[in-house]
Amino acid sequence: MIVNEHRIKVPWHFWLIGLFFVFIYAIGAYDYFMMLGLNEAYYSYNNFGKGVYAYFTNYPMLPLIFWTTNIFSGIVAPILLFFRLRWAVQASFISVVSIMLLQFITFGFMDRWNVFGTWLSLFDIVIMLTTFGFFLYCRAMAKRGVLI
Fold first, then answer.
1. Is the pLDDT of residue 3 over 50?
2. What whole-number distance in Å separates Cα of residue 15 and Cα of residue 34?
3. Is the pLDDT of residue 66 over 50?
4. Using one digit for the tens of pLDDT, what is the confidence trace for 107-141?
5. Is residue 71 within 8 Å of residue 25, measured between CB atoms?
6. How far apart are CA 112 and CA 109, in angstroms?
7. Cα(77)–Cα(99) distance, rounded to whole angstroms?
8. Cβ neighbours around 28 below 10 Å, total
9. pTM of the model
10. Tens of pLDDT along 9-30?
């Protein structure tokens, strides 16, 4: 018996948003490896001072786990979205929860605002809010039947 499966048309913004998040989290992955690898050329190029370098020296395990989880799930979620899989909702949820926990720990207990300054701190908060928006978008696409 063949069942006629009706697929919902993918909206134009679907691909744009997916590409945007692959781009954002690819940059995040590059930053992750350069920062944790203590790449002095990267720190110098971005005008990070000695305080930022010291911040990532002996970086604590708990925020490292949340940062790693955020980067990994942040890359996987839009890829799952491209394949129109509902797992994009779960991956984006994991990404947003992990970045929220990371921000809570680093701003609340590791003095991130003072180490990185206002602009980088605000940028990190915008990335967190944007990641939350991506989760809401994935959930909306699943509810509309775009994701299977």
1. no
2. 28
3. yes
4. 999 999 999 999 999 999 999 999 999 999 999 99
5. yes
6. 8
7. 14
8. 19
9. 0.93
10. 999 999 999 999 999 999 999 9
- Asked whether 38 and 98 are in contact (CB, 8 A), the reply is no
Could you give the CA distance from residue 93 to residue 103 in angstroms, rounded to a whole number? 15
What are the structure tokens assigned to 97, written together? Answer: 């929860």
Q: Return the DSSP state at 93.
A: H
Place of tokens 């890359």: 75
Contacts of 87 (CB under 8 A, 6+ apart): 80
Q: How far apart are CA 81 and CA 34, in angstroms?
A: 27
Looking at residue 34, its amino acid is M
Among 9, 17, 22, 27, CA closest to 134: 17
- State how far the Cα of 37 lies from the Cα of 42, in Å rounded to an integer: 10
Distance CA 117, CA 48 (A): 10
